[in-house]
Each structure stands twice: as C-alpha cells, then as structure tokens.
Amino acid sequence: MSRKSVLPLLFVLFAATTVGCSDDNEKQCTLIGCENGINLNIEDADGKPVNAFKGKITLADKVVEIDCGTAANGHGPEYSCNQNQVFLRATDATEFSVDIYSVADPTFGYIGDLKVTYEPLYPNGEECGEVCKQATKTSAFNTSL
Questions:
Q1: Planar angle of CA 114, 92, 52, nearest 5 degrees
Q2: Shortest CA distance to 141 belongs to which of 96, 115, 117, 106?
C-alpha cells in the first residue's frame, strides 16, 4: 500500500471515531458564567433610554455611588454601566432606594424605592445547572428634582 493511499484511510478512520462517539445522554456543558445582581434600566417618561445618569443607590445599609456619565460606560467595584443600564453586582437585596438624575439635565431624575424578584439564569442550559440569579427593573425618570 502506498503512502498516498494510507493518508486518506487514516483521515476517514479519525473522522469516524470522533464524530460517531458522542453519548446522547452525556451533558455538554460549557463554562459560560454570569454574576448575581440587579439590572436597572433607566428611561424617560416616554420610555426612551436615558444614557447618562449619576446618583446613589441604597441597598440595605450599603450606599453605591454611580456615575454612568456621558459615555454611559462608567464602572466601579459594585456596578457597571452600559448605555441606559446599570448593573449592581453581587447583591441579594429585594428592595432598594434610588436617587439618580440625568447628566444632561440634573433637575430630571428619579427618587424612590424599587422592589425586584430574582430569576435563575442558565447560560449553559438548564441541564447544566444554575449559575447565577439576576433581577431586572426599569425606572422611569419622571420627577423634577
């Protein structure tokens, strides 16, 4: 048998053993992760995103100063901003107080208390188990400060 005829045969054998050997009952889990926390979306009274805001959020006895300035991408050890959303990391608070205002118009903002319910997230699929819990809430700027 020549060397040229052996290479295709080896390739076919390799392909047959790697493709045909998966166990349908075996879980195929990846390592995609996520963080526990709260996603707070900021909108104006008409439901349009407010992309630049500052203020403070009180979670139990912890005050988090946020600065989601004009670039809307600020971050700190307890939060991160992305457009009109601030993510509050690693909290299990179900109620929190918000005192935030628009960077463009500091007289426009939201002051009040919000409640959230956490949902489990399965970024690798439910069969791979829960990875984290997150809550999402939308706050509409409707108060003239």
A1: 50
A2: 106
